[in-house]
Design goal:
about 65% helix; 11 helices; single chain; about 220 residues; globular; mainly alpha
Length: about 220
């Protein structure tokens, strides 16, 4: 593909308007709000996700990128991710997003070997699917990890406007204030290459909420 500046690729892949089912996700915020989380607590919720769930997702993505660029099998990455994501509901949601991301990637980079490998992977989670897009576009591990972190933060912020009485300026400030934490997570996980080294940062309360949310018949978001 023709060279595209990294910052523009990041803007493209982080765009909430992408047809990757992102609009169906709240990054767990809806379940948290249903169980009493208030708008005042959302910044702390963002930080908690960056310290736990996002580390797992970003670590999974960068290890998958390494294995894609070195011709190594991806199945150990998927297994490591699944072991670190105990909630069936969250695994199911991630795989649905992975299918949507793969659909987009095969449309944009139809002949790319990394995209085709990821597309054919059984039970591909979103983090690995995004790694396929990163491999196709030449994003490095640090950029990919920042993308994963930023996407999670902006997903929570966007969902909060539908779930809580908020001024959009406030949610934008939340995203701005979380950026140093996003960068710190990216710096920590970017050097990872071995599936065994993917962070295993548990978020038990989020897992419990996700399971309860999956059984709810009154919800705006799938997860």
């Amino acid at each position: 593909m023709d060279h595209v500046p990294t910052d523009l690729l990041l803007m493209l892949l982080a765009d909430a308007r992408l047809p990757v089912a992102g609009h169906t996700q709240s990054a767990g915020l809806e379940a948290a709000v249903q169980h009493g989380l208030t708008s005042v607590e959302v910044p702390a919720y963002l930080s908690a996700r960056l310290a736990t769930t996002v580390r797992v997702e970003a670590g999974t993505a960068v290890v998958a990128l390494h294995r894609l660029t070195h011709g190594l099998p991806l199945e150990p990455v998927v297994a490591a991710w699944a072991a670190r994501t105990p909630s069936h509901a969250l695994r199911r949601s991630s795989r649905a997003q992975g299918r949507a991301m793969n659909r987009l990637s095969t449309r944009l980079w139809a002949d790319d070997a990394a995209v085709l490998r990821v597309h054919g992977l059984d039970g591909c989670p979103r983090a690995v699917a995004v790694a396929g897009a990163a491999a196709a576009t030449g994003l490095d591990a640090s950029s990919l990890a920042r993308l994963v972190g930023y996407d999670d933060v902006q997903t929570v912020a966007s969902a909060s406007l539908k779930l809580l009485p908020l001024d959009p300026a406030e949610t934008t400030a939340w995203v701005h204030d979380a950026l140093p934490e996003v960068a710190a997570v990216a710096a920590d996980v970017a050097p990872l290459t071995d599936p065994r080294d993917i962070p295993a940062a548990a978020a038990p309360q989020t897992e419990v909420w996700a399971q309860a949310h999956a059984r709810s018949t009154r919800r705006l978001f799938s997860a």
